[in-house]
């Protein structure tokens, strides 16, 4: 699951890093460098909370029976799918206006006081951190136990995101963020579909959902998961050689519904035309 986790780290990490770079740039340009430590305080607290949340859900899972682990993991996967679906649509909508909105909120926070700046930075980064912890946990469940590949992929994605955000902040790199989030969002839809299918399989193994032994297909022979191409498909799309009917239906329905909605072009808002002055005069 290296690719999937790297994509999650890149996408979520870039969002959080962009938020921080926008806040820092605003304070620097406004000659309010004295408020920078409060921004970093909010960021550090948000990162610590996200790490603690990730540890909590991992520790909680280790204290459960097999059935409880499957139900817990499946539930977390469904929550992660909800997070990533909302995230990609939100970023698609907000990519062009996020800078203006954040600067406006930070300006208001500066008027309130330094703690308000710290709280704003905490909320802006904390939401991304909690989503990232949930997504990473759910995506990592589909990998082989004991392997460090999910963590490596995730850290690589985070590192690339930080470098990109720093380059954007310094003006050394200019990319179309709307296009970037569209491409990564489309790829994440396939990752989310795999997480959804895997989560449903967990719930089937936990006895919550039926159909565990009703397979849509069994490709263990021609396309085993331990082959290089099976491992590649598993890493990118969370491929399972033995896929139940419920998993297959959920994967297809999710892609068929979410992908077209995400890729459809948004209609530009229709501006109201001003009434001609002649018509206004005639009505007097």
Put the structure in a nutshell.
Helix content is 75%, strand content 2%. By secondary structure, it is mainly alpha-helical.
Describe the structure.
Belongs to the oxidase-dependent Fe transporter (OFeT) (TC 9.A.10.1) family. Its main location: membrane. It is found in: Membrane. The chain crosses the membrane at residues 6-26, 38-59, 71-91, 112-130, 150-168, 180-200, 245-263. The chain has a domain at 2-195. Helix content is 75%, strand content 2%. Mean pLDDT is 77; it is low at 271-284. It starts with a helix and ends with a helix. Helix 1 (2-29) packs antiparallel against helix 5 (114-140). The protein has helices spanning 2-29, 36-62, 66-94, 98-112, 114-140, 149-170, 177-205, 228-237, 245-263, 277-282; strands spanning 215-218, 242-244. The protein has 284 residues and is mainly alpha-helical. It has a two-stranded antiparallel sheet with strand order 1-2. The protein is built from 10 helices and 2 strands.
């Amino acid at each position: 699951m290296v690719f999937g986790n790297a994509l999650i780290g890149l996408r979520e990490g870039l969002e959080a890093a962009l938020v921080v770079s926008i806040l820092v740039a605003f304070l620097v340009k406004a000659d309010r460098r004295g408020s920078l430590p409060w921004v970093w305080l909010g960021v550090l607290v948000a990162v610590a909370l996200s790490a603690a949340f990730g540890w909590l859900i991992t520790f909680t899972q280790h204290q459960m029976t097999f059935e409880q682990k499957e139900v817990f993991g499946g539930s977390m996967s469904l929550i992660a799918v909800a997070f990533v679906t909302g995230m990609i649509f939100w970023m698609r909508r907000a990519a062009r206006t996020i800078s203006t909105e954040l600067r406006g909120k930070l300006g208001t926070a500066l008027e309130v006081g330094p703690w308000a700046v710290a709280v704003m930075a905490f909320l802006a980064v904390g939401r991304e951190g909690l989503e990232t912890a949930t997504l990473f946990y759910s995506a990592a469940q589909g990998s082989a136990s004991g392997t460090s590949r999910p963590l490596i992929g995730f850290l690589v994605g985070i590192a690339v995101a930080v470098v990109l955000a720093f380059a954007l902040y310094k003006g050394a790199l200019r990319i179309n963020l709307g296009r970037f989030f569209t491409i990564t969002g489309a790829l994440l839809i396939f990752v989310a579909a795999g997480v959804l299918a895997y989560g449903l399989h967990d719930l089937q193994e936990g006895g919550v959902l039926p159909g565990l032994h009703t397979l849509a297909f069994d490709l263990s022979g021609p396309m085993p998961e331990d082959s290089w191409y099976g491992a590649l498909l598993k890493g990118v799309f969370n491929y399972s050689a033995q896929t139940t009917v419920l998993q297959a239906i959920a994967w297809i329905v999710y892609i068929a519904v979410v992908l077209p909605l995400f890729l459809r072009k948004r209609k530009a808002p229709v501006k109201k035309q001003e009434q001609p002055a002649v018509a206004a005069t005639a009505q007097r």
